[in-house]
Every structure is written in structure tokens, then in C-alpha cells.
């Protein structure tokens, strides 16, 4: 009937989006041969069929790809991706988590680095933190070389159990802090900072960033304890 036609049309539209993204996903990585791209496509198509109300959104392939590289098994990767999406789905446009991340970043930087906050506020006011959008959407996947994605993700997942479920905020703040002097010395505005972080993608020192993020958690904890 009409409902079935709508369902198939919707699925067809999603398949088209998936196809475009699968072809572009990590094309320079040795793992993504035609056979493994087929696995990636199968995982995405199965997930979307099971979650048609959400559908496919740009970036989902980016979250599946590292899991597939490590696990190399289609069914296992699908299961793990499903679990990952219980946390990550809210970051996509149909969820509301992104605005919360931005608001929390605004609060954090005001507390931990008021000088940086003032610069952002004065230079065209980019305290909306939209330049962090890709960071939160993909758990920093496009900011790092492949070898570093795994340790970054493991820290984020572990932190949810032992430190803070909001550890991604501290990683984002650590990224800003790491380049603090460059940002301040050049009085960067919103366009500058977008361009800067796009150019710096895959050039960050993940170990240092993670260490700084842990220190920022402790810094905030100390402030709270000493109130």
C-alpha cells in the first residue's frame, strides 16, 4: 500500500546518502579495499533499515570505519556501532545534545580561562563554539591520525565510567588550550579559528591533548572542592 511505498522511498533515499558517504570514507586508508567498503555499506544499510525513523546522517560512516578496521567482522562491528550510537545519536541533528555541549563549553572556558573567553567574545563573539561541532559529532575522529583515534576513543569510553561522562568537553578545551598562545597572539576571529583547526586536523599530539584534558578535569574538581 501507500505506507509500504513511502517506506521503500525513504529507504531508497537513505541508500543514496550511504552510497555517497561510503565512497568518500577514509579513501586513503589501506584497509578500505572494495571488499571492506562493501562491509561498511552493509553495516550502514542494516543500521538504517533498523532505525529508519533516524535515517542515515552524514558522519555515521566515520563512526563505523574505525570499529571495522579494528574488528574486521561485519556482525561484530554492527553490534558495537549500535552500542556506540546509544550515546552518539543525540549529537546528530535529530538529537539535542550538541547545544548542550556548546553551552557547557561556554561555561567551562569562562571558569577555567576567562582571558580566552574574552578574546572569543570580543572578536565577533564566537562563544557559540560552533567550531567544535565536528569534534563532538565524531568524538574527534577527523582531527586525529588513525592510530590515535583508538586511544582517544578508549579514553572517552573509560572516562564515562571512572572520571566524567562529559570527558569530550575537556578534550575540546584541551585542544583550544594547547594552541592558546597562537590563538591569543593572532587575535583569531571565528573564520580564523575554523581555518586554523581545519588545517591542523591530523597534526595534533593526541597524548599531550589527553594529558591536558585529564589535568583540566582535576583543575575543575579542585575548584569545586575548594568552594
From TrEMBL:
InterPro entries: Rab-GAP-TBC_dom, Rab-GAP_TBC_sf. Keywords: GTPase activation. Pfam families: RabGAP-TBC. One of its GO terms (molecular function) is GTPase activator activity. This is Rab-GAP TBC domain-containing protein. PROSITE patterns: TBC_RABGAP. PANTHER family: SMALL G PROTEIN SIGNALING MODULATOR 2-RELATED (PTHR22957:SF502), TBC1 DOMAIN FAMILY MEMBER GTPASE-ACTIVATING PROTEIN (PTHR22957). The keyword Acetylation does not apply. Residues 1-160 form the Rab-GAP TBC domain.
Amino acid at each position: 500500500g501507500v505506507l509500504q511505498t513511502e517506506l521503500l522511498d525513504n529507504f531508497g533515499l537513505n541508500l543514496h546518502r550511504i552510497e555517497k558517504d561510503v565512497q568518500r570514507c577514509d579513501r586513503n586508508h589501506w584497509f578500505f579495499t572494495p571488499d571492506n567498503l562493501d562491509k561498511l555499506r552493509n553495516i550502514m544499510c542494516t543500521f538504517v533499515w533498523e532505525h529508519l525513523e533516524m535515517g542515515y546522517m552524514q558522519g555515521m560512516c566515520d563512526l563505523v570505519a574505525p570499529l571495522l578496521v579494528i574488528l574486521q567482522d561485519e556482525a561484530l562491528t554492527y553490534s558495537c556501532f549500535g552500542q556506540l550510537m546509544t550515546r552518539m545519536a543525540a549529537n546528530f541533528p535529530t538529537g539535542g545534545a550538541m547545544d548542550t555541549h556548546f553551552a557547557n563549553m561556554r561555561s567551562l572556558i569562562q571558569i577555567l580561562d576567562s582571558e580566552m573567553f574574552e578574546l572569543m567574545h570580543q572578536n565577533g563573539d564566537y562563544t557559540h563554539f560552533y567550531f567544535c561541532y565536528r569534534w563532538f559529532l565524531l568524538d574527534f575522529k577527523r582531527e586525529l591520525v588513525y592510530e590515535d583515534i583508538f586511544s582517544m576513543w578508549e579514553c572517552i569510553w573509560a572516562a564515562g565510567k571512572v572520571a566524567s561522562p562529559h570527558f569530550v568537553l575537556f578534550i575540546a578545551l584541551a585542544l583550544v588550550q594547547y594552541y592558546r598562545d597562537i590563538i591569543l597572539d593572532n587575535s583569531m576571529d571565528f573564520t580564523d579559528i575554523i581555518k586554523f583547526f581545519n588545517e591542523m586536523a591530523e597534526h595534533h599530539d593526541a597524548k599531550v591533548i589527553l594529558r591536558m584534558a585529564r589535568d583540566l578535569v582535576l583543575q575543575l574538581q579542585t575548584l569545586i572542592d575548594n568552594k
